[in-house]
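If it is no trouble, can you show me the amino acids of a protein and the C-alpha cells describing how it folds?
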Amino acid sequence: MTIFHGFNMSASALTSQRLRMDVISANMANAETTRGTMVNGEWQPYQRKMVVMQPNEKQSFAPFLNNAMGNSNSSVGNGVKVTGIINDQTPFKLVYNPEHPDANEQGYVQLPNVDPLREMVDLMSATRSYEANVTTLNASKNMLLKALEIGR
C-alpha cells in the first residue's frame, strides 16, 4: 500500500510542477506584451502569473517522526495540489520610449512585471523538482518490481 501511496505523491508533484513550468513559459512569452488585459477601457500590460501549491492534507511533523521511529499507526504525506494561479502584484516597469504606440503623455511605456532572470531561475527550480519526482517514481517502480521478483 505504501508504494502505491508513493506513486500518488510523485504523480501529484509531477502534475503540479508541469503546470508551474507552463505558467513560467507563458510569463516568458509575454515578457514584452504591453496589451495584456483591458481594464476600465484601457490596456494594461501582461501581469506575471504564479502557481500556488499546498499539501493535499495539512499535517504536523509528528506523523513523519512517528513513521521514522517505526510506529505503524502514523500517516505519511499525500502529495501536493495546485490551489490557484495568482497575479504578481509587483508594479509594472516604466520605460521611456515616446515613439511606442502605448506611451503615455510623458513618453513612458508600462512594461510587464516579468523579470526573465527570475523566470529562468523558477524554471530551473521547477525542472529540477520535476526530475527529482521522476527519479522517485522510477525508484518506487523498481522496488515494486523487485518485490514481485521475490515472490517468484
